[in-house]
Amino acid sequence: MTSYSLSRGATRTTIVATWSGEECDQTANITTLSDAEHAKDLAVFLTRLSEAAWDAAAFLDSHPAVEDGIGRLIGKLRAQTEIITPVKLEAGNYRHTGGSFAEVQFLLDHDLDRALTPLTRTQRLTIADELTHDAAERAEALQLLPTGADPDDGSSRIWQMCEVTRSGKLGNLGPLPEGAAGWIERGWGWEYSPARRWGAREQLVRIEQLIAACEAIGGRAGADDEPLQAHLVVPRGHGVDDVEIVYVRSRRDGNHARYFNPYAYMVVTSVRAGGETALGEVAAVDDDTFARLLGEWTRAIPYLRSTDTYVDPATFE
């Protein structure tokens, strides 16, 4: 979630990129403009774009469309054309088309073209390089963090993955998936390691996916944060009362959020007329075991893996 701030001089204003590193914030000068108001607008738009794209990379199935839109914007910046035209971002068949997706959609279609068109050729190329670098670090995060490893480079932008965003506070509040970063903090406390935050992300994505799958077959469902779980009312017959109540929760070994283990298996229990039954413990990413324990309805909505949202930045023009 790279944010862009201003360093003001006597006659020119520099846009500075800032992101969370391993031990301290990291910065890089991006470009300098003579018009301070123009620099401010551009910094705001770039911040909103980056924060929404990082959030989408972690939690939204529409992230490939987000990166495609950013890639097309980069292509326009590199092309030798006078006017930067809007980029249209289509929702297609994605489930997650609100929140960060809608933010990127609006920026590409309404804001960025007018902020980027007045730039010089050199300034456009500098912005294109910055957008490409930010996207490349997101792509690297999607490959690295599911392995359980943190980045070796203390200045990597990957250290900020799955955090509430710096400026817009994206992910701080709201339901899943829009508020997922805040759910990580409430459920597991503040996690220093982005790999551990990714482990928490995998559990939250499973909770959100099971809720959507249950609703897709006519059930009722919701997410609870105390304890952290999916609460599923699964139809098992034709009668209104012929249902099974299922809880899929993060395993907790104490009374504090820190006792949630982001890598632990999730606990699955069932409540029917005969009482509550423990069905088993399942890794968040294990589609087959969830289907075996609860039924094929759990596949009605796909589980969102990092490979589903990964976009190779080398495909950008």
UniProtKB/TrEMBL annotation:
This is Uncharacterized protein.
